[in-house]
Write a structure and sequence with these properties.
elongated, about 35 residues, about 0% strand
Length: about 35
């Protein structure tokens, strides 16, 4: 069970990083929020 929780945390970190990258891209070139 703990292993699953840890992997979920790591997945969350990866998602957060990709989210930050997407935010930077959106700031560079204006676009609507309808992404996914």
């Amino acid at each position: 069970m703990l292993g699953g929780i840890i992997s979920l945390r790591e997945e969350n970190e990866a998602l957060r990083r990709t989210h930050q990258k997407l935010l930077k891209l959106l700031k560079e070139k204006p676009a609507d929020d309808s992404v996914g």
